[in-house]
Design brief:
three-stranded mixed sheet, alpha/beta, 6 helices, 177 residues, 25% helix
């Protein structure tokens, strides 16, 4: 019932290795989940021609027709400018959307940088410029835990980061390939 809670179905695609806890009677596992749409996207390839379309309409078509996403799961597909002819060259649906985002230009803003992502409310295809105009969701700080109360109270409106982890470090050779 929490306002930050998420009620969704996920696919368990991987179980991490067994790690014993301190008392050796308990083990920890890392469970890896993904959305139903990612599972479908990984199993499917698109080879389709789009003639005389705006990119946001192509993204919408891929979500609705190829991945069978219900319209309720689409939060915000921002309009783009320009009419394009594309042939999607045998790409997975999410790869195709990522590829198209490189060509997309927002209709209401100058610049580029269209991003495709999913939040707890649904799928989004938005420009960075439009996201910068949104209200601030939360402010986070990373600081020592044993600071004096007067220093901590000065930053009451921010949330302290308890722990962070670098999941994947940058790998230049891997990115080139």
């Amino acid at each position: 019932d929490s306002p930050n809670g998420i009620d969704k179905s996920f696919h368990l695609y991987k179980v991490g290795s067994r790690v014993p806890s301190g008392n050796m009677n308990t083990y920890f596992y890392t469970l890896h989940f993904c959305s139903e749409e990612l599972m479908l996207s990984e199993q499917k390839k698109i080879s389709k021609s789009y003639k005389g379309n705006e990119i946001y309409k192509i993204v919408n078509d891929i979500l609705l027709q190829q991945l069978k996403v219900s319209p309720e799961k689409i939060e915000n597909i921002e309009e783009t400018k320009g009419i394009y002819d594309f042939i999607v060259p045998r790409l997975k649906p999410f790869e195709a959307i990522s590829w198209l985002s490189n060509y997309a230009r927002p209709a209401d803003y100058t610049g580029a940088d269209m991003l495709f992502f999913e939040t707890k409310n649904g799928y989004n295809f938005r420009s960075l410029q439009s996201m910068f105009t949104d209200d601030v969701y939360n402010t986070y700080k990373y600081q020592l835990a044993n600071l004096s109360p007067d220093v901590q109270s000065a930053q009451e409106k921010s949330t302290t980061i308890i722990h962070y982890e670098v999941v994947k470090a940058y790998d230049a050779l891997n990115q080139i390939s």
